[in-house]
């Protein structure tokens, strides 16, 4: 599977958690950005393959939701024509910047190609920046 397609699948998983609705795991409301804003670390990071959570101290409800996302991730990849063995890492970091909800997604495929992208808002849209020639380009995380 193409790396860009794996990134799109990973974005959808991370965006589902960011939305607060949790439709990917059934209806499971969460408030990850509210928990990020209250954390001393200023971020919560989630590994969707292992379930490891770093950064802030998530609530029991958020921990349960993340565990459900980890369970659902292999089936979600298969639903979109990929295999969980196509990726080595699917990682998201949620943070709040100037009252805007943001999250970064890092994907490493089975061949070792790694990429990251930063998204803002709900639903998460790729952030844009100006390059040295004044053109609008996707911002790199």
Give a description of the structure.
By secondary structure, this protein is an alpha+beta fold. The protein has one domain (3-138). 31% of the residues lie in helices and 31% in strands. It contains three helices and eight strands, in the order ααββαββββββ. It has helices spanning 3-19, 32-38, 60-79, and strands at residues 43-47, 53-55, 87-97, 100-109, 114-120, 125-126, 128-130, 136-138. The protein has a six-stranded antiparallel β-sheet. A two-stranded antiparallel ribbon has the order 7-8. α1 (3-19) packs antiparallel against α3 (60-79). The longest helix has 20 residues, at 60-79.
Defining traits:
six-stranded antiparallel β-sheet; two-stranded antiparallel ribbon; 141 residues; alpha+beta
What do the pLDDT scores average to? 90
Question: How far from one another are the termini?
Answer: 23 Å
- Low-pLDDT sequence parts: none
Number of helices: 3
Main sheet strand line-up: 2-1-3-4-5-6
Major sheet size, sense and barrel closure: 6 strands, antiparallel
Q: Work out the count of structural domains.
A: 1
Give the SSE order as H and E letters: HHEEHEEEEEE
The geometry reads as globular
Helix/strand-derived category reads alpha+beta
Total beta strands = 8
